[in-house]
Amino acid sequence: MVQPLDPILLADHPPLRTFSTASGASIFQLPMELFPDFWGYAYLVLVNAPDGTPMRVLIDCGSGFGNSNAHLEAGLAAVSAATGIPALIKDLTHILITHGHIDHFGGLSHLSQLTSAKIWIHELDQRILTNYEERLAMATRKLDAFFIEAGVSPDRRASLLDIYRIHKALFHSVPVDFTYESGGMQVGPFQLLHVPGHCAGHVVIRLDDVLFAGDHILEGLSPHQAPEQITLSTGLEHYLKSLETLRPLAPNIALTLGGHHDLIYNLGQRIDEIKVLHQQRLAQVLEILVQPGTVSDISRALFHDVSGYTVLLAIEEAGAHVEYLYQRGLLAIHNLAEVENNPEPVPIIYRSVFTETQ
């Protein structure tokens, strides 16, 4: 059973919470401001390898933007001071990245200069770290094509692409030492499980009765979805299947620690809650598309008044649900002739198929 320990107080941000697993491994939840007013966590784990060698493992490392690196270093320093165990960046032995989103790996640009810790990631996200500039260029092209088909105006497309690139331009390629597959989905006492959907190479990491979930399972929030049209091995179909892949672990998991938001004590219940939310959202999309519309139209109907980066997330989320329904024959293309007769991408207007048989 996971034992919560006393929090370690930090000067200017939330307390650093600590836990102990069934076998006595110590876990430290390190809060970081990833982007302005957007917080998340990295996790420091002090545990022994099967051969008894001490491991100082960092799971995720923040965005590298703004205060993120400083908060990470402050958290590690607080652990070192409270425990008497050297746990600064230079003392780390392993860095395990749950998935290739910049708020979880962006700190590597800073950390990799200060530590000899081995960096691990799933092979489907490896190129995001090792060939980052190419990945950013190709992802931007695919995102722009998606925006066109989603019915986003040219001016708004340009603005959204600028927003997409602005924080990502701060990272540069870093080498990766190992992929999880090369280690047999095991790193010392840590077991890895591939759960594509939110990100192509997303993994959850199990240590005893604790699950480090990254963004795959979050409390109080359904993890963001984007269509597989933009990145292979993402999309709502992959995500929902990955939720079910995780379900057999639930009875043996006492605590799930996400990259954001609060603790999860009932993993099976949280899986059910997220699935219900997506079922409701799929039903909403079908209802909205009784009147033909674009992904952009659906996004506005689902999420109403959003701004900044949230606009991009809302359009991707709507696109993931449209893609899922279209794959299953529940949507049809209303302006098929226009799509067929244009060699370049054009806005696609969808309609619910069931309206044709009513």
Kindly list the characteristics that best describe this protein:
globular; about 20% strand; about 35% helix; single chain; Metallo-beta-lactamase, Chain A; about 350 residues; Arc Repressor Mutant, subunit A; alpha/beta; eight-stranded mixed sheet; five-stranded mixed sheet
Largest sheet: 8 strands, mixed
Corresponding CATH architecture of the largest domain: 4-Layer Sandwich
Q: How many β-strand runs? A: 15
> So how many helices?
11
The portion of residues forming beta strands comes to: 15-25%
If you consult CATH, what is the topology of the largest domain?
Answer: Metallo-beta-lactamase, Chain A
Structural notes for this entry:
The chain has 358 residues and is an alpha/beta fold. The chain is 37% helix and 21% strand. Strands 1-2-3-4-5-6-7-8 form an eight-stranded mixed sheet. Helix 8 (267-288) packs across helix 10 and helix 9 (295-303) packs across helix 10. The termini are far apart.
Task: Briefly summarize what is shown.
The protein is of the alpha/beta class. The chain contains eleven helices and 15 strands.
Task: Reconstruct the topology from this structure.
Blueprint (H helix, E strand, L loop, with lengths): L2 E6 L7 E5 L5 E10 L2 E11 L5 E6 L8 H16 L10 E3 L5 H4 L2 H4 L6 E4 L1 H8 L1 H19 L3 H15 L9 E2 L6 E2 L2 E5 L8 E5 L2 E5 L21 H11 L8 E4 L8 H22 L6 H9 L5 H19 L3 E3 L2 H5 L9 E3 L6
Parallel strand pairs: 5-6, 6-7, 7-8, 12-13
Antiparallel strand pairs: 1-2, 2-3, 3-4, 4-5, 9-10, 10-11, 11-12, 14-15
Helix pairs in contact: 4-5, 5-6, 8-10, 9-10
